[in-house]
Structure formats: structure tokens, C-alpha cells
Amino acid sequence: MYWETPTHVNRQSRHFDVMMLAITPHWVLKEFNKKERFAKNIKVGKRKRLIDYDLCPIHSDLNNYGAEHNYEYKQYFLRDDDTALSKYPYRMLKFLKLD
After folding, report:
1. Phi, psi (5° rounding) for residue 74?
2. Would you tell me how many other CB atoms lie within 10 Å of the CB of residue 61?
3. Which of 38, 43, 52, 66 has the fewest Cβ atoms within 10 angstroms?
């Protein structure tokens, strides 16, 4: 899951004319990662395109699904610079049981 917004200027890969939420279910990511060599090649190519496309470096919180110390919530809304969210952004939603 991640957000694209009109306020993203430097991070063009996260820019969209209206706010948009994109969702990728975990089962899709697990299936994708089953073929390690294929997944690695796709990830390398994607990062190369980000370097060419964005006006800022790849965000330090952009990580791989399932990687140790990967806190997915930090990738939900990558800011337009390299600053990071300090906590899970949707904690205030009553219908989520996170504890």
C-alpha cells in the first residue's frame, strides 16, 4: 500500500494529480518473491528507473518485502525528502487492532 499525491514534486514516482492509494496484497508480494533471481532483477531495474525519474535520491525507508527490520508502514507515505514517519500513520483508526 502506498500513497501518491499532488504535493510530491521531487519524488515524481509518488506524484499523481489527485490523492491515490495503491494497494498490493501480501500474497502478491510473496508470490513475486518466490522466484528470487527474477524478483531481484525487477527490483534492480525499478531502482534504476527511480534514480532516473525522481529529482531526489531513493528514500532510505524503501525496502524489500519480508526483509529484516522492514517496517512497511514507513513506505506507505514516502515524503518528498528523506525524512521519515515517526510512527504508524493509521493508529488512530478504531477498527484496526494493532496491539
Report:
1. -70, -20
2. 19
3. 52
The residue behind cell 521531487 is: 10
> How far apart are the C-alpha atoms of 30 and 88, rounded to whole Å?
22
> CA 84, 89, 90 angle in degrees (round to 5)?
165
Q: Residue 15: what pLDDT?
A: 95
Tell me if 57 sits within 8 A of 36, measured CB to CB. no
Q: How far is CA 88 from CA 11, 30, 47, in A?
A: 21, 22, 25
**1 vs 26, higher pLDDT:** 26
Find where cell 525524512 sits: 83
Q: Please give the helix or strand (H or E) that residue 22 lies within, else none.
A: strand 20-22
List pLDDT tens digits, range 20-57: 989 889 899 899 999 999 999 999 999 999 999 999 99
